[in-house]
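Z., the sequence and structure:
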Amino acid sequence: MQPDIKELFELYYRQLCLYALHYVGTNEVAEDIVQECFVTLWQKQPDYPKAFLYTSVRNRCVDYLRHARLPMADVAAHDLENIISDDEARKRSETEARLWKAIDRLPERQRQVLLMSKRDGMRYREIAQELGISERTVEHQVSAAMKKLRG
């Protein structure tokens, strides 16, 4: 028996928001996209709701980025061409959601420094200047965060 829409929402809302956030960059837009996908799921009730949700979120994120004419540097070419299967999209998005959950659990400073370095592409020197810390501290924070994520 499949879970009902409320159970699915409770199970996947947070990780789908984190997945969408990777694409669109703002919490508000990510939450709107995920909520729209749950409404569509509720209206259509497909046979495979989990795969549907991840594929739907991915597609709406790409549509949002295209419509807003925002950079799609983090979007792989196969996502834009929609040539991966729903199952592959689900697997990738679940892995990515686990990664974002792990990033979310990092200590505040480690998370901030890691995201500035890896997501925003800032150099250690730039991060150090912006945060008022040494480059060595930035290096240590990124290294510690990566070590925790690998674990």
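Residues 1-105 form one domain. The helical segments are 5-24, 27-44, 49-67, 77-81, 86-104, 108-119, 124-131, 135-150.

Let me know what you think.
H.
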